[in-house]
Amino acid sequence: MKNEELQELIGSWSPNLTFAVEGSQYLNVSVPIDELHDIMFKLKHNDQTNLDYLFCLSGVDWGEELGVVYHLESTNFRHSLVVKTQTAERENPVIDSVYDIWATAEFHEREVFDFFGIKFNGHPNLKRLFLTDDWDGFPLRKDYEDNINMIIK
Amino acid sequence: METTTLTSNFKSEEYFINMGPQHPATHGVLRLLLTIDGEIIKKVEPDLGYIHRSIEKMCERDSYQQIVHLTDRMDYLSANINNEAVCLTVENALQLEIPDRVKVIRTIIGELTRISSHCLWWGVMGMDVGALTTYFYGFRDRELLNDIFEETCGARLTMNYNVPGGLMFDIHPNFVKRVKEFITHFKTKLPEYDRLLTDNIIFQKRAIGVGVLSKEDAISYGASGPVGRASGYSCDVRKHHPYSALDKVTFNEALRTEGDTYARYLVRIQEMWESMSIVEQLIDNIPEGEHRVATNAVIKLPKGEYYQKVETARGELGVYVISTGTKSPYRLKFRSPGFSNLSLLNHIAVGGKIGDLVATMATLDLVIPDIDR
Q1: Is A3-96 in CATH node 3.30.460.80?
Q2: What ipTM does the predicted assembly reach?
Q3: Where residue B4 falls among pLDDT bands split at 50, 70, 90?
Q4: Less Cβ crowding at N or C end of chain B, within 10 Å?
Q5: Does A127 touch chain B (CB under 8 A)?
């Protein structure tokens, strides 16, 4: 499917989605946090989108908000889509897990939890992946400070 | 004593055992926490982070030229391909026109890197299942490639040969001759690999039907590289999203359908033949021209998001850059192939024996610094 067709189809599922193509080689769609799981489920299981390959799941600290970026591709049609979601809550950010849709998300979400402190609803084994359990703070957040181990220029 | 009393006295129970972090079969500091019942594996839980260096955080501080150097230290057996991934991201973002000479040399060295990585994998794969000879065969042939790399750029493993805009130096005058010599040599040696291990009945008994991964699961777990292709999942980035000179060559994507350890083994052997074919198609026709185009000393990517995938020896490496227009990325994420391939280990190892786990791990071909970025 071409980007315009994808946008038209996915846009018809919910009025709350915003699309963007500027500054990226993929079609980007921002999904509100409470609709994320429904939309993601449809993106994989709809016959026309069939985005069955989650090739990248990244946490991003946008400054005010914390967000997660999902890069999806269809192995049948070879079209791609980038899904973004974000939350303004920094103390206790919670996003629905998509591990039941793409199994690879289990590890990737643990990594995001480890480095950004984003909790994933419904994740089967949400604990730190790389760092020790008693680590203080979330290192990939922009406001993380570690005066001993980090060289600040 | 009656049989009934015997069974009640010797009932089995689950217990935990550590495999690693210094276990020879984990090839690096990976700790696997195994839950086993007798010798049957009930659960495999990887414990990561022993050598995590937070490369992604360092990238937010460094310039794009510096980031290239860090990528060597991820999957060090595909060092040159990792470098290429970052350089391609920067070049695409700046819309630099890269000379054909650079593209062809990058592809040749990329494929030689793949052969070198698979040679090492083949050697240690044999060793993991008890055949020590393979180790010496694999390292013997890999050594020739490392010599070529050393002559080309001064380093044998962490090459740093790519820079944004091209290559750090032009190729050595001996390069073409030595690569051709290697191909001639390796064409006679690769059939020996088959005679030694592929057709070995003891090895086949260890590998066939062990650690089976279905195509659906391969896609769902984000498997890539030989692991995905052994399950019949066409995931070769070189085919679907060609980069550098890969659109100018013809090669077959090594595909199997069995999805077991033996299929993953065969895919890698076939890939070595395919890589040799790619090198042969290019080595006589390296275009003349510059080996590098000039870039600004301080590279600033335009505001936006960039994603570049390449096929390393282990699978799909993704570089995701978010730029705000400054000299460093705002966020840089490496999607490493080993990370996704490790996540499916529990799925394919449960129900097998500890010995099967060693064979399965060997064909996942994990490089731990690639997982602990």
Answers
A1: yes
A2: 0.89
A3: low
A4: N
A5: no
